UniProtKB/TrEMBL annotation:
Record note on quaternary structure: Associates with the 50S ribosomal subunit.
Entry binding sites for GTP 2: 205-212, 252-256, 317-320
Residues binding GTP 1: 30-37, 77-81, 139-142
Record gene name: der
Family, as annotated: Belongs to the TRAFAC class TrmE-Era-EngA-EngB-Septin-like GTPase superfamily. EngA (Der) GTPase family.
One GO biological process term: ribosome biogenesis
Highest taxon, organism lineage: Bacteria
UniProt protein name: GTPase Der
Organism of origin: Streptomyces sviceus (strain ATCC 29083 / DSM 924 / JCM 4929 / NBRC 13980 / NCIMB 11184 / NRRL 5439 / UC 5370)
GO molecular function, one term: GTP binding
Length: 455
C-alpha cells in the first residue's frame, strides 16, 4: 500500500541528492608537497590523514565524491601516486597525463611560498595543450601577507591564481566556486553513449595476466586505432574492435602494450593507467591470472572498478595451464578473496588457445544490461512492501525502523533511495541489496543504496 503523507518534493530532493548518473571528474595535480592531499581532504570535507601514506605506494583509493553548492562531482587525488618511484618530473607528467585523459577539469596546485618552478611550468604546458579547464590554486597562503606571493603566479598564464590555505581552509570556498564554473555538468566521457557511439570497454588487470595477448586474440588483425588526443605527451589510444558482430571501443589500449622503456616505476605506471582506463569506460573486463594466487593487487583493481561504478566482467585467464588441483584452489580463493563481486559474470578463458573467447561478449552484454536496469517505482515498492512484511528490521531501543518507500534514482550503475522511519542497520541494508539482486538481477553491476530517515 502506498504510504500516506509522502511529500513528493521530498522524494525529488532525495533523488537529486542520490544523483542521476556518472559525475564529472576533477583531478588535483601538482608537484609533491605542494599540498594536494591536504586540499583534497578539504574539498571532500574530511580530515583523515591521507597525507600519511608512504610515498610511492599506490593507495587503494584515489577517487572521492564531493559536493559543493549543491553540485556533486568526483575528486581524484594524485598525491599518493608519486615521489620515489619515478622522478619528480615523470611523476608530475604522469599525473598531468591522467588529468588530460580522464578528468573534466583540473585544479593545478602550486606552493605560493616557493613560487613557480621549472617543473610547474612544464606541467602548465601539458595542461594547456590538453585544453581542459584549469583552476590555479596558489596554496599555503595562510594569511593576508601571503597574497602577494600568489599574485606572482599570474606569470604561469593560467589566469587568476586563487590564493588558498588547504591547511586552514582560507579561500577554498572561492576556489571551489571557480571549480564549479569550470566543471561541466556531466562528464565528457558519457557524451559518447548519449549519441550512441560504441560501448567502451576497459581491459584491465595486473601486469602479465595476459591483457595484450587477449586483445590480440579477440581482435586479430581487425583493429582500428582511434587516436583521439593526438599531440599530447603520451598518446592514449582507443581501438575499435568488432566482436560478435558489434563494434566495441577498447579504451586506452596504449597502456596494454608493453612499455619496455618504462621499467622503473612500471607498477606505479600500470595502476595509473588502470585508473584512467576505468574512468573512461562503461564496462571493465578484469583479467585475472588463474594460474597464480589471487593477490592484493587483483583485489585493488577490482575495488577500483567497483568504486568507479562500472559494469564488471571477471575473466580468469591462462585456463590452459590449470590442473585439477589448481582449479580447486582457485574456486576457494575466488570465494574468499573476491566475494565483493560475486555478482559479476565470469568467464574462464585462455588467450593462448582461444578457449571460451566467444563467451566474452555475452558476459559483457549481461553486465551492461544489469548496469542499465531501471526498476519502475511501482514494482520496486510492491517488492519492498512484501519483503519488509516478511522480514522486518530488528527492533532497536523499543522501536522498529521500517522502510516506507523506495525509488530508483538513476542507472549506470543503478542507484536507489529508500525512505525509512528510523536508522537502518548495515546488515539489513546488505540483506535488501541481496534480495534486490535476486529479484531484479543486477548481474555485473555494483548498486548503490542510500537511506533517508524521515523524522
Ligand atoms: P602533496 O604531496 O601535494 O599531496 O602535499 P600534502 O598534502 O601531503 O602536503 C605537504 C605538506 O604541506 C604537509 O606537511 C602539509 O601539512 C603542508 N601543507 C599543505 N597545505 C598547506 C597550507 O595551506 N599551508 C601550510 N602552511 N602548509 C600546508
Ligand atoms: P599483460 O602484461 O597483461 O598484457 O600480459 P601479456 O599478454 O603480455 O602476457 C604475459 C605472459 O603470459 C606472456 O608470456 C603470454 O604469452 C602469457 N599468456 C597470456 N595469456 C596466456 C594464456 O591464456 N595461457 C598461457 N599459457 N599463457 C598466457
Amino acid at each position: 500500500a502506498a504510504e500516506e503523507g509522502f511529500d513528493p518534493e521530498d522524494v525529488e530532493g532525495a533523488i537529486e541528492a542520490a544523483g542521476h548518473g556518472p559525475l564529472p571528474v576533477l583531478a588535483v595535480v601538482g608537484r609533491p608537497n605542494v599540498g594536494k592531499s591536504t586540499l583534497v581532504n578539504r574539498i571532500i570535507g574530511r580530515r583523515e590523514a591521507v597525507v600519511e601514506d608512504k610515498p610511492g605506494v599506490t593507495r587503494d583509493r584515489v577517487t572521492y565524491e564531493a559536493e559543493w553548492a549543491g553540485r556533486r562531482f568526483k575528486v581524484v587525488d594524485t598525491g599518493g601516486w608519486e615521489q620515489d618511484v619515478l622522478g619528480i618530473d615523470a611523476s608530475v607528467a604522469a599525473q598531468a597525463e591522467y588529468a588530460i585523459e580522464a578528468a573534466d577539469a583540473v585544479v593545478f596546485v602550486v606552493d605560493a611560498k616557493v613560487g613557480a618552478t621549472d617543473t610547474d611550468e612544464a606541467v602548465v604546458r601539458l595542461l594547456r595543450k590538453a585544453g581542459k579547464p584549469v583552476v590555479l590554486a596558489a596554496n599555503k597562503v595562510d594569511g593576508l601577507s601571503g597574497e602577494s606571493d600568489a599574485a606572482y603566479l599570474w606569470s604561469l598564464g593560467l589566469g587568476e591564481p586563487h590564493p588558498v590555505s588547504a591547511l586552514h581552509g582560507r579561500g577554498t570556498g572561492d576556489m571551489l566556486d571557480a571549480v564549479l564554473e569550470a566543471l561541466p555538468e556531466a562528464p565528457q566521457q558519457t557524451f559518447g553513449t548519449a549519441i550512441g557511439g560504441p560501448r567502451r570497454i576497459a581491459l584491465i588487470g595486473r601486469p602479465n595476466v595476459g591483457k595484450s595477448s587477449l586483445l590480440n586474440k579477440v581482435a586479430g588483425e581487425e583493429r582500428v586505432v582511434v587516436n583521439e588526443m593526438a599531440g599530447t605527451t603520451r598518446d592514449p589510444v582507443d581501438e575499435l574492435i568488432e566482436l560478435g558482430g558489434v563494434t566495441w571501443k577498447f579504451v586506452d589500449t596504449a597502456g596494454i602494450r608493453k612499455r619496455v622503456h618504462l621499467q622503473q616505476g612500471a607498477d606505479y605506471y600500470a595502476s595509473l593507467r588502470t585508473a584512467a582506463a576505468v574512468e573512461k569506460a562503461e564496462v571493465a573486463v578484469i583479467l585475472i591470472d588463474g594460474s597464480e594466487s589471487i593477490s592484493v593487487q587483483d583485489q585493488r583493481i577490482v575495488t577500483m572498478a567497483v568504486e568507479a561504478g562500472r559494469a564488471i566482467v571477471l575473466a580468469y585467464n591462462k585456463w590452459d595451464t590449470l590442473d585439477e588441483e589448481r582449479r580447486y584452489y582457485l574456486e576457494r580463493e575466488i570465494e574468499t578473496e573476491l566475494g565483493q563481486v560475486a555478482w559479476a559474470p565470469r568467464v574462464n578463458v585462455s588467450a593462448k588457445t582461444g578457449r571460451h573467447m566467444e563467451k566474452l561478449v555475452p558476459a559483457i552484454e549481461t553486465a551492461l544490461a544489469g548496469w542499465e536496469t531501471r526498476v519502475p517505482t511501482g514494482r520496486l515498492n510492491a517488492f519492498l512492501g512484501e519483503l519488509v512484511a516478511a522480514h522486518p528490521h530488528p527492533i532497536r531501543g523499543g522501536k522498529q525502523p521500517r522502510i516506507l518507500f523506495g525509488t530508483q534514482a538513476g542507472t549506470k550503475p543503478p542507484r536507489f533511495v529508500l525512505f525509512a522511519s528510523g536508522f537502518i542497520e548495515a546488515g539489513y541494508r546488505r540483506f535488501i541489496e541481496r534480495r534486490l539482486r535476486e529479484e531484479f538481477g543486477f548481474d555485473g553491476t555494483p548498486i548503490h543504496i542510500s537511506v533517508r530517515v524521515r523524522e
